[in-house]
Amino acid sequence: MQGTIQLVCNLVASFVGLAYFLWSNTRPLLRELRREPPPHRRLRPSFQSLKVFLRPGLIFFTESAVRNALYLWLVTTIVALGSVYSTAWGVFNTIRWGLVMVPVQALEATALQFIGHNWGEWRRKVGVNMRRPKASWKDILAIVWPALKSLVLAIVFEVPLAIFLTLYGAYSFASYLSGSDEVAEVTAYMWRSLDWCYVFYAMSTQLATILLATRPKWYLYQSLASNLLYVLPWAIACLNVPLGQISPETFPLPQLHAELRKLSDELHTGHGFFVIRGLDVDKYNRQENIIIYVGISSHIAGQRGRQDNKFNGKPADVVLTHVKDLSSGQEKGAIGSPAYTTDKQVFHTDTGDIVSLFCLETTLEGGASRLASTWRVYNEIARTRPDLIHTLSQNWDVEVFTNADKKFATRPLLYHQKATESTPERVALQYARRYFVGFGALPRSHDIPPITEAQAEALDTLHFLGEKLSVSTNFQKGDMQYVNNLAVFHARDGFTDSPTQQRHLLRLWLRDPKNAWETPEALKSRWAELYEGVTAEAEIFPSEPYIRSSSNKAR
C-alpha cells in the first residue's frame, strides 16, 4: 500500500512537471523553428547518448544502494527485538510513509521539475558551452524559488502534523492499525523519539532538490551524509538491546527450544524441579552469563517477576538478584535475610510460580540445596497429624517486608485445589519462617499478633519433614536449577567460603503463562506485585550483588 501511494504521487508529480515543461518550451521552440528551419537531421539512439544519461544514473544508483543497505541493517536489528517491536516498526513505517515521507517526496518531485526547468533555461540563456558560468543573486533566487516555496509548504504542514502525532495521534493510530496496546506504546515511543527528525527531513529534502537538479554529484554526498546520520544511530542503538528485551525471539535456541518447553511441562506437571548442567561460566564475563541465563530461562518461562522495586534509590523493576554472603561487608548490620549470609536457611518458599538459581561459583564447603515435595509432606502430615493440615489451611498473620505502610497480611499457608477437566488435584504451599520469627536486622515486628502454639508446631513440622523427605542438589558451577515454587519448597545448608572461592548464585522469579498453576485467591495481590506492570524497558539486571529492599533494614 505504501509503495502504491508513493508510486502514484511520484507519477502524478512527474507528469505534471513534464506537462509544464512541454507547455513552456514547445511554443517558443515552434516559433523559432518557423522563423529558421533547421537542417535536415535524423535522430537515432546511440551508445554515446546512453553514456550521457548513464553518469548521473550511476550516482543515483550508488546513493540508493548505500541507503538501502543501511536500511536493511536497521530493519534486521529491529526485527531481532521480537514480534512487538517488528510489528511496531511496520506500523511506524505506515505512519511515517503515509503521513510524512510520501507527501514530502511528492512535493520534492514537483519542486524538482520546476528547478530543473529553471536551471536548464538559465544554462541555455548563458550558453551551455560555458564551463563556469556566474549567476547573479537574482538568477539564483529565480532558480531555487520552487524549492523555497516547497520548503514553506513542508514546514506549514509537517510541523503541526508532527506535534499532533507526538501528543495525540501516534498512539491512537498505532492502536487502531495493530489492535495492540503494547505495539501502540512502542510505536508512539518511536515517534516521540524521532518526530524532530522528520521535520528536518521534510526541510532538507526540499532544499536538496537544488543540488539534485544542478549538481547531482553534490546531491550524492549530501544524501549519503544525511542517511548515515539518520540510520546509523538507529542501528547502533538497536545493537545495544536492553536485557529486558531478551525473549525466545531475541535469544533463539532452535535446537533446544522444544526440549526447554518440555522441561517447563516437567515443572508444572512432573517432578516440579530440574537442573540444567554443563555451562562453562568461566568462558564468559558476568554480563554474558546473565544474558545466557536469562535467555535460556525465557524459553522455559517467559515472564520475569519483580524481586525489588528500587535500585540505587530509584524506582525500578529489578528482575534478577544475587544470592551471596554479604555479611563481611559494610552492610552487615542491615541484613534481614539468611540469603545474604552463610547461615543455614530452613525450609521455605520464595514468591511466585517458579524460582530459579544459576551458580556462578560454588562454596568451599557445605551449602547443599535441599528440595522437598509439598504433596509428599502434606500426605505425611495428613497421615500423622491431620490437625496441622487444618492449622496450615487457616489464616495466619504474615509479616509484609515489601510495603512499609502495611505491617502484615492475613492468609493461609496451605492451599488445596480441586481437580478440574484440565488439571489434577493439587496442593500448594507458600510460606517462609522469617515471616513469623524475623531474621537478623529485621526481627519480628511488635505490630504483628503472636503465633499460636499450634502454628509454631506446624512450622516445625514443615521444616523437619522437609529435611526428612528432601533430596539434595549440590550445585556445580554453571548449574541452572528451576523449581516449581508452589509444588516444592526448599532449604540450604550452612556453608563456608574462602577468600578465593565464594558461593555466588543468580536468581530469577519466573512464570510460564501457558503452563502456570492457578494462583490461589489469597495470593493474587502478591502475585500482581511480582508480575503486573513489569516492562522490558524498566527491567533491571544488576551485575553486582546488593541487599534487596525487603531484606535490608536500611531500606
From TrEMBL:
Looking at the UniProt entry, the stretches that span the membrane are: 7-23, 70-92, 140-173, 193-212, 224-243
Which key words are in the record?
Membrane, Oxidoreductase, Transmembrane, Transmembrane helix
In this record, what's one Pfam family? TauD
Q: Which GO terms describe its molecular function?
A: oxidoreductase activity
Lineage: superkingdom: Eukaryota
- InterPro entries attached to this UniProt entry: AlphaKG_dependent_hydroxylases (IPR050411), TauD-like_sf (IPR042098), TauD/TfdA-like (IPR003819)
SUPFAM superfamilies to which the protein is assigned, alphabetical: Clavaminate synthase-like
Domain named TauD/TfdA-like: residues = 242-509
Name of the protein this chain belongs to:
TauD/TfdA-like domain-containing protein
